[in-house]
Amino acid sequence: MIEYKYTIAEHWLCPLINDDYSGLEDDEVNELEGFLNSLPKHYHFKSRMHSTWDIEEEEPFFAEDEITGLYDNCLNVTLIFI
Questions:
Q1: For the chain, which terminal residue's Cβ has fewer other Cβ atoms within 10 angstroms, N or C?
Q2: Are residues 2 and 70 in contact, defined by beta-carbon separation less than 8 angstroms?
């Protein structure tokens, strides 16, 4: 198992976990796609069935979002490859 930890704004969870981009503006989709393209090679060469996002925090906290670099209500998440 391989794990990568990130601090991301809570509004990114729906597109990451459920693959539902319907609540995002076009520029947000581009930011998220840029983040996904920067993920370790495991993410790109394995099926999404072999990876999962785990939420480490139940309550959001104010921190810098690693996707945008802006401060927002964030959660610590782990990308896990099985």
A1: N
A2: no
